[in-house]
Amino acid sequence: MKKTISINIGGIIFHIEEDGYEKLKGYLASIQKYFSSFADSKEILSDIEGRIAERFLNKQKIENKQVISLSDVDELIAAMGTVADFEAIEQAEDILADPLETASAQTATPRPEAYAATPNAPKTEPARPGAPRKLYRDLRRKLLGGVAAGLAHYFAIDAIWVRLAFLFAVIGLPAGSGMLDMNAEEVFGPISGFTVLVYIAMWVAFPGSTTLEEDAHIKKFYRDPDRKVVGGVAAGVASYFGVDLGVVRFLWVLSILLFGTGFLIYIVLWVIAPNANTLTEKMEMQGGAYYPLQY
């Protein structure tokens, strides 16, 4: 008897044989890589997951079966197409859009002299491997001005940690000082104000961009709706750091009872952290390498 694995696709639990799961995992990974550079990649991947879930549901209803097999996955891939199919369609569209340019590019090699003799020759700049990277505000993933998201993109980390750092400097330090009776308002107050000024200055100084490509392999923090008790924050922390959920919940309750700060941190994470609703987002909790399994 083949081993079966339970997976969540488009919010629906499916039981799939292990060999079929491996095939589906590779297929979805290739699709995610292909669409990662698209501006609306998340919406595209979410739609694909919805279509996969719909096909699997129809398959189960028509054939009255409970487990998805390898042959079902092969049939799905054949119907929806592979990355090679997508690339072939894209190339065909390019050929139809500009047949003369494509034909000349395929049959002739341009000579440098030809460009020199043409008054409107295209100007190309040599690649500069040592050129410094530019910092942009990320307008696609912004919550306020895109500063935190832009910094996260620049340093290749999850934006939630940059946002937490800003919130901690602006709100956490003064609030923590008051709660612990440290009487350090004269120190933390200016730090809070300076952080706000830095954020505003970066908002003004750095240009915004809506075309920053997101690194699919960055592990991201999401609230885990599948194992939540309240808001899924503790389950998200457990998934992100790969630790036991019971230990995380115990430490969180302890921090709330002893210090009171755990409650504030939980609320902040509940507000700024998104829910992992799609299979792609659950992949990103693992760094884009694996799909979350629910046994």
From TrEMBL:
Q: Give its localization.
A: Cell membrane
A cellular-component GO term for this protein:
plasma membrane
Annotated region (Disordered) at 107-131
Q: Which UniProt keywords apply?
A: Cell membrane, Membrane, Transmembrane, Transmembrane helix
> Which residue windows are transmembrane per the record?
143-175, 187-206, 227-243, 249-273
Domain named Phage shock protein PspC N-terminal is located at 133-207, 219-275
Entry membrane topology: Single-pass membrane protein
Q: Which InterPro entries match?
A: Phageshock_PspC_N, PspC
Name the PANTHER family on file.
PHAGE SHOCK PROTEIN C (PTHR33885)
What is the name listed in the Swiss-Prot or TrEMBL entry for this protein? PspC domain-containing protein
Which species is listed as the source? Dyadobacter sp. 676
